[in-house]
Amino acid sequence: AVVSTRSSGDVDVEIKPNHSLIAVQGPKTEGVLQGGVRDNLSKLFFNHTALVDVWGIPCRVTRCGYTGEDGVEISVPTDRTVELVEKLMAASDDVKLAGLGARDSLRLEAGLCLYGNDIDETTTPVEGTLMWTVAKRRRAARDFPGADEVMRRFKAKEGRRRVGLVVEKAPARPHYPILNLDGEVVGEVTSGSPSPCTGQNIAMGYVDIGYIKNGTPLQVQVRKKVFPATKVAMPFVPTQYYVEKK
Fold first, then answer.
1. What is the b/e burial string over 116-134, where b = at least 16 CB atoms within 10 angstroms of the residue's CB?
2. What is the dihedral of CA 233, 235, 237, 239, to 10 degrees?
3. Which DSSP string corresponds to 72-130?
């Protein structure tokens, strides 16, 4: 889809059913892609987008991704997708095909939510620790859906919060219970995986607000066994977004 803003302030969304999306992620992305475009990609910053011919194929290139790394997502006509993938892979031995498992471990290391796992229609920005998506102006104006309830919960400092965990010995998986040291259930894991970058078993989940301080000792029940866990800050691995320096 393409989103465009009109002078009136309204937003139009145009669905592109005949386009596919290719994500190229990692610190070598710009160097590889620059060989196939005339535009200077060093001027394309995080969350910026441009219409670009990539090896002669008309595309929309956006500096973004869901891995925490620098990279781009390329919207390409579906009938030329394979052609573009082949050109990318021929451009450098560093370009490899990667599946959703690789993407999922990277987005978890970056502390990014997976819709349906970590957030859904029942999750408020307060619970999801996503209040950074609600600008201060909008908080004051309360002009967004659910504003009164969201702001009430924000000020009340109650309920649950999304947190990061490091689990000893065993990887945690979605729906595994999170326990306090007394063995009481205080939350639930929503995402979990061994982390290739840190060498630890990391997880994301929701806990009661009394357990959100970094360093809080907890436990995770993995099947019939209980393993020590610690509440830690996210991201687990520092993000590498290509942000314009001001």
1. ebbbeeebbbbbbbebeeb
2. -140
3. EEEEEEGGGHHHHHHHHHHH-TT-----HHHHHHHHHHTT---BTTTB-TT--TTTTT-
Residue 8 has pLDDT above 90, yes or no: no
Return the sign of the alpha-carbon dihedral for residues 134, 137, 140, 141: negative
Mean pLDDT of 185-198: 97
The per-residue pLDDT for 24 is: 98
Question: What local confidence, expressed as pLDDT, does residue 245 receive?
Answer: 87
Q: Provide mean pLDDT across the span 153-169.
A: 95
Task: Give the burial string for 15-24 (b: 16+ CB within 10 Å, else e).
Answer: eeeebbebbb
Contact 44, 64 (CB under 8 A): no
For residue 190, the model assigns a pLDDT of: 98
What is the dihedral sign for C-alpha 79, 13, 56, 91? negative
Bond before 196 cis per omega within 30 degrees: no
- Closest alpha carbon to 218 in 186, 192, 176, 170: 186
Bridge partners, residue 222, by sequence: 225
Q: Which residue has the tokens 């957030």?
A: 119
For the chain, give the percent of residues with pLDDT over 90: 91
69 closest CA partner among 113, 99, 32, 25 = 25
| Cα gap 220→150, rounded to integer Å | 29
Using the structure block, give the residue that is written with the tokens 């620059």.
34
pTM confidence score: 0.90
